[in-house]
Amino acid sequence: MANPDSHVTIHMAASLDGFIGCKDGRVDWMETSDEFADGDSLDPEFVEAFLKTIDCYVMGSRTYETALSFEAKGFGWAYAEKPTFVLTSRDLPRTRDTVEFYSGDLAPLVNERLRPKFRSIWFVGGGVVSAECLRLGLADEVRYSILPILIGDGIQFFDKLDRDVALHLAEVKAYKSGMVELRYEARGHRGESRNAT
Ligand SMILES: NC(=O)c1ccc[n+]([C@@H]2O[C@H](COP(=O)([O-])OP(=O)(O)OC[C@H]3O[C@@H](n4cnc5c(N)ncnc54)[C@H](OP(=O)(O)O)[C@@H]3O)[C@@H](O)[C@H]2O)c1
Fold first, then answer.
1. Fewest C-beta atoms under 10 Å: which of 107, 131, 148, 169?
2. Cα 165 to Cα 135: distance, rounded to the nearest angstrom
3. Is the distance from CB of 19 to CB of 156 less than 8 angstroms?
4. Each residue of 29-45: pLDDT tens digit?
């Protein structure tokens, strides 16, 4: 049964020119050194409390592989003990009990399995999966954190999104680091195609 309180968020950080990663996997560009005096501070205690409000994560296999490589380099696992659903048609290593693999149509996964069980469902990339989620009309909101840098080429936030998706700008926050977070609400109805405008 659908949970009226459930909420699907897509969140990633991107360069100003809309790339979430370099094609060669380079991530050093994400460490920016800008300062915006009038911006808010990202208080670690606030971040920790906020992360606790997320009930589960969904990600594509390439994002999962990136997360595993970060972990192997000693940066830890960013998704704590939260259930993490990894989309893949391949046989990937399952490194913890919280990880579950899924292959196939995203709509039944989200509407029949995740929404009844979880309130705050976060899609954390990459570009292929975020486009798939929006194309199917499954997202309630998009959180787009723009980093103060241009990188010229890379993997797009929304890979091959083949139609217009109307959004409502709900919140804008600027941080001392020069990062700007945009929060948009997606229009339309869950599980149905949203009308292009
Ligand atoms: N800047 C950020 O905030 C951020 C966040 C996340 C990721 N990233 C970066 O983005 C890159 C990865 O993004 P990406 O767009 O290349 O890939 P992705 O979205 O992470 O993964 C795409 C892959 O997931 C699998 N998949 C997707 N939908 C599926 C479905 N319905 N059923 C079964 N499998 C499905 C497919 O691979 P297989 O079936 O072949 O496994 C597909 O090729 C990495 O470089 C990562 O570092 C950046």
1. 169
2. 8
3. yes
4. 999 999 999 999 989 99
